[in-house]
Structures are given as structure tokens and as C-alpha cells.
Amino acid sequence: MVKKISPTQDKSAPAAAPVHPLAASVRESAQQIWLAGMGAFAKAQEEGGKVFEALVKEGLSLQKKTQGLAEEKLGDVAGRMSAMAETVGAKAGQNWDKLESLFEQRTAKAMARLGVPTAKDVAALSQRVDALAAELARLGKPARTAAKPAAKPAAKPATPKAAPAAPRSRRSRSATAA
User: Fold this and answer.
1) Of 60, 102, 137, 163, which residue is 20 to 30 A from 84 by alpha carbon distance?
2) CA 3, CA 103: separation in Å to the nearest integer?
3) What's the whole-model pTM score?
4) According to DSSP H, which parts of the chain are helical?
5) CA 81, CA 75: separation in Å to the nearest integer?
């Protein structure tokens, strides 16, 4: 398919120097390579749009495949991360419960040392008071819930006060003291 071109001699060149066969062969090969490049360029110009569109289609299909694989891997990773987060959350909840229990125990110990009654103590005391009140009612004595204040004495009429005495001078005080 490659058409061999016969070497052309430049008629303006001097005919005095004989051409070496190797140089002629190299020249001929270079000429054919040049012409093949020019043919490929012309062919690319003719079919360039078609090739470009084919490359775009091939790129789209490749992008869809890689996107699908990436989404699949992302889904797997998200599932693993979700499971890991649940595990960490459960462990944190257990640790929080332990910490809360420890805090409650230590607070109860401190309050017991200070003599602060617990809710159970107050409930037991309330039941004892109710039982005693019931016992008093059974014996026939009404239970007093609160002490009644004593009656106030009748108010006395106001008496007019004497006017204050005039201040004494120093001399008069010293004279009376002597």
C-alpha cells in the first residue's frame, strides 16, 4: 500500500557529485515518512469529528463504570463506619452508666457521713408519725398538729410621756457632782 516513489534529481543541482546509495536510501525513506505523516494528518482532519465523538462515548461509559464502583465502595465504607459508630456509642453508654452509678454511690456515702437523712429515712419517719397519730386517736386524745399561740394580754392605754429635760451645762454637772 505504500507507493514507492522514484528518487528525483534536482535539475538545478550540479551533476558533478555522485550520490552514495546509502544516502539515497535514507533520503527516500525520509520522503516516504513525511508523506505518510501528511496522509495521516489529512485522514485525521476528515474523520477527526467521528473519532472525537467515539472517544467521548467511550469516556462516558468508563466514567459510569468507575462511578458505580466508587458508589458501591462508598456504601460499603459507610455501612462499616455506621456499625463502628453504633459499637462506640454502646460502649460509651455503658461507661456513662458506670460513671453515673459510681457518682450516686459516692454522693450517698458523703451525705450519710454528714447525717443527711435519705428519702427512705424520711418516708419511714412519716409512717411512724402517722402510726403515732392513729394510736393517739384510738386512745381518745386528739392529736395536736401544731401548738396554739398563747393569748396576748389586752393592750394598755397609752400614757403621755414627759418632755425631755433640758440639757445641763458642764458647770452645773460638775457643781452637782462635787
Assistant:
1) 102
2) 98
3) 0.30
4) 21-114, 119-139, 170-177
5) 10
